């Protein structure tokens, strides 16, 4: 088995687009990297807040209507019918594995936030109590990119450098890093989706203005 990667080794690849996103949503530069050093309870709470702010920013960027700012900000993040994820899914702005990560993070955050006794929560203890099946589910839920690439054996997008066994071992021995790395991939996807949003808006406008019958006399 390959040597399992650590946060210290991975942070050198910290995507620059995330740093720009941090500033756009009002977080201090480097916020995403610094939360890794927080206790597990604070890490999950702050990570969820960062992800929610990133999703809010993406929706506002797509709609380009500042008047919607308060409305979208007040939407629940992971509600499948009327939440931010519902909008992102309907607009095809966020894929299934990324939405699954966000829902899983919301579930974990919600299980911690309402009881002050959870401030001593430990991810390592939580993971150590999981069965083999539960551990695999945990691994997949918080691996929006790696798990998908492992399953696409003949993908031209990225060489397969991680096996499922290695991924599970990382989730088991370094659950905090596993969640952080999954968030990194999610946030990179959100940054990249801003360009896709631009393209979608351009094609929609191009079709609208090229179809003269859509305009009243």
Could you walk me through the main structural features you see in this protein, from its secondary elements to its overall organization?
Helix 4 crosses helix 6 (84-90). The termini are far apart. The chain has helices at residues 7-10, 16-24, 31-34, 40-63, 69-74, 84-90, 96-113, 123-128, 132-141, 146-151, 164-173, 175-210. With 217 residues, the protein is an all-alpha fold. Helix content is 65%, strand content 0%. It has one domain (16-205). It contains twelve helices and no strands.
Overall pLDDT metric: 86
Q: C-alpha Rg, in Å?
A: 19 Å
Fraction of residues in helices?
55-70%
Largest sheet: none
Distance between the termini: 69 Å
- Poorly predicted residue ranges: none
Secondary-structure blueprint:
Elements: H1 7-10, H2 16-24, H3 31-34, H4 40-63, H5 69-74, H6 84-90, H7 96-113, H8 123-128, H9 132-141, H10 146-151, H11 164-173, H12 175-210
Helix pairs in contact: 4-6, 4-7, 4-12, 9-11, 11-12
Concise summary:
This protein has 12 helices and no strands.
Fill in the keyword field for this structure.
single chain; 217 residues; mainly alpha; 12 helices; 65% helix; globular
């Amino acid at each position: 088995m390959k040597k399992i990667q650590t946060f210290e080794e991975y942070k050198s690849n910290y995507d620059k687009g995330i740093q720009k996103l941090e500033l756009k949503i009002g977080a201090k530069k480097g916020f995403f990297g610094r939360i890794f050093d927080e206790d597990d309870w604070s890490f999950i709470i702050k990570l969820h807040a960062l992800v929610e702010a990133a999703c809010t920013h993406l929706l506002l960027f797509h709609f380009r209507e500042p008047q919607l700012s308060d409305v979208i900000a007040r939407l629940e993040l992971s509600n499948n019918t009327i939440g931010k994820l519902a909008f992102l899914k309907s607009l095809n702005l966020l894929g299934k594995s990324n939405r699954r990560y966000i829902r899983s993070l919301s579930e974990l955050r919600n299980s911690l936030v309402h009881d002050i006794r959870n401030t001593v929560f430990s991810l390592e203890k939580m993971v150590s109590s999981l069965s083999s099946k539960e551990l695999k589910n945990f691994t997949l839920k918080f691996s929006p990119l790696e798990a998908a690439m492992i399953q696409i054996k003949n993908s031209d997008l990225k060489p397969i450098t991680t096996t499922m066994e290695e991924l599970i071992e990382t989730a088991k021995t370094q659950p905090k890093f596993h969640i952080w790395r999954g968030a990194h991939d999610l946030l990179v996807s959100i940054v990249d989706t801003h360009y896709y949003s631009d393209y979608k808006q351009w094609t929609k406008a191009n079709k609208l203005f090229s179809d003269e019958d859509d305009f009243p006399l």
